[in-house]
Amino acid sequence: MRGWMVQAWFLVALAASLAGYATYLAGLRRNLVEPNRASWLIWSAATAVEAFTYAAVNPDGPQRWIFLFAMVACAAITIALWRRSAWSLPTRTEAFCIGASLSALAIWAMFRDAFWAHMLVVAAVPVSFWPTWASVAADRNRERSPAWGLWTVGDLATLLVATRTPGSPVGEYAYILVELVCHASVWFLVGLATINPLRSIGYRNGRFFVLDALRTPANLFKVGESHLGKAVFAAQPFIEGDRLIEFTGRRFRAARVPSLTRGQSDRFVQVTPEHYMGPSGRIDDLVNHSCAPNAGLRFTDSGVYLVAIRNIAAGEEVTWDYSTTLAESNWHMICQCRSPDCRRVIGNFATLTPERQEWFRSRNLVAPYLRRKDSLSRDRAA
After folding, report:
1. Contact present, 319 and 295 (Cβ < 8 Å)
2. How many CB atoms neighbour CB 329 within 10 A?
3. Dist CA 240 CA 365 (whole Å)
4. All residues at 6 or more sequence positions from 259 whose CB lies less than 8 Å from its CB, including other chains
5. Domain boundaries of the chain, sorted by first residue
6. Which of 123, 145, 276, 364 could form a disulfide with 268 if both were Cys (CB 3.0 to 4.6 A apart)?
7. pLDDT top residue among 302 and 184
8. Do the bridges between strand 319-320 and strand 288-289 make them parallel or antiparallel, or are there none, so unpaired?
9. Which fold has domain 221-381?
């Protein structure tokens, strides 16, 4: 009887884990989630260590197959993230957890002590979740996926398999318990209702849908490649005046902005004479410049938004004119937008023709400190 129960819980654990990773990958492909790159890099390494150390400690445990599957799935998600976005150096916390995982490998390789390698990875798990917790605390929609609930169920089933397997010491399934708590914490933060099948899957308006109830504004766009590299494309038509994307980066004083940023690292938007908005790590970082844009930045009391300045067709790249926020006279960029009106070199707002300046001003598509002509005259004089 006990063997039958172990097999049943094993199948539940495997099915929940499989469904969780499949759902998460589907959400990633459809821009429903914005995973933290550092966490997934760490998890990819940690699950590989855990899969092999657990198999070494408990070679006959059926749950080792769950760990092996998780290892492959984590690697697949990490590779997908690597291919679709720029990578950045890890923070101290992230570097510590990566170091812990590498230490586990070293302990196993040098001393063949799989148990302590296993325990070291267990200790590193909560640290690896810290970047994701911080991301969810800032915006829970970044991880609003049924996958977290499914992983929690899968962890619980895996724990039941371990506890019902004869001869399994508590230390050998400590990792499962820690994973259960961490997955459940994210599920709680993003909302327990995300696992509700009625919100995640169904049939409506003559078509079958998956995850539509969790659709976020990012789903209105697709990230693809252009001659400039990463670019944002409209996934549906927009009309003039539609609000498209909110720019949400952290603010920096001008003195703290790197002076030699170029290419993908140059994601700073001037918002006052003394402040810049830095990269957010989200889709707004990927919107390119054009001298003949179809969108522009509008500064409001509730935030900074990209709005359509003409009708935009599905599949069309979304662009805005970088000069409409700039007062810095020493900044310039060689333009490769390839529009018929290309200015060749992009500079500050003062480099636009008076007619073009007034066109943007009349539509409220410039930074607040550039709205008045006398402020621009002072900038020129300075």
Report:
1. yes
2. 13
3. 13
4. none
5. 2-213, 221-381
6. 276
7. 184
8. parallel
9. Beta-clip-like (2.170.270)
Report which of 66, 68, 64, 32 is spatially closest to residue 48, judged by C-alpha positions. Answer: 68
Mean pLDDT (the chain) is 76
pTM (predicted TM-score): 0.54
Which has the closest alpha carbon to 187: 50, 23, 45, 8?
A: 23
Residue 129, C-beta contacts closer than 8 angstroms, at least 6 positions apart: 39, 182, 185, 186
Higher-confidence position of 269 and 330: 269
DSSP H helices, 30-113, are 37-57, 64-84, 92-111
Biggest CA pair distance of the chain: 87
d(CA 57, CA 117): 10
Q: State the pLDDT at residue 296.
A: 93
Rounded CA gap, 102 and 171, in Å? 20
Q: What are 136-142's contacts with CB under 8 Å, separation 24+? A: 136/186, 136/189, 136/190, 137/189, 139/248, 140/189, 140/190, 140/191, 141/190, 141/216, 142/33, 142/34, 142/35
Beta-bridge partner residues of 203 = 208
Which tokens in the block code for residue 210? 């998956």
Tokens of 331: 């900044």
338 dihedral zone (left: phi>0; alpha: psi -120 to 50; beta): left
C-beta of residue 172 within 8 angstroms of C-beta of residue 57: yes
pLDDT score of 213: 45
Edge to edge, the sheet with strand 275-277 lists: 251-253, 275-277, 269-272
How far apart are alpha carbons 309 and 273 in whole angstroms?
25
Closest CA to 321 of 360, 355, 350: 360
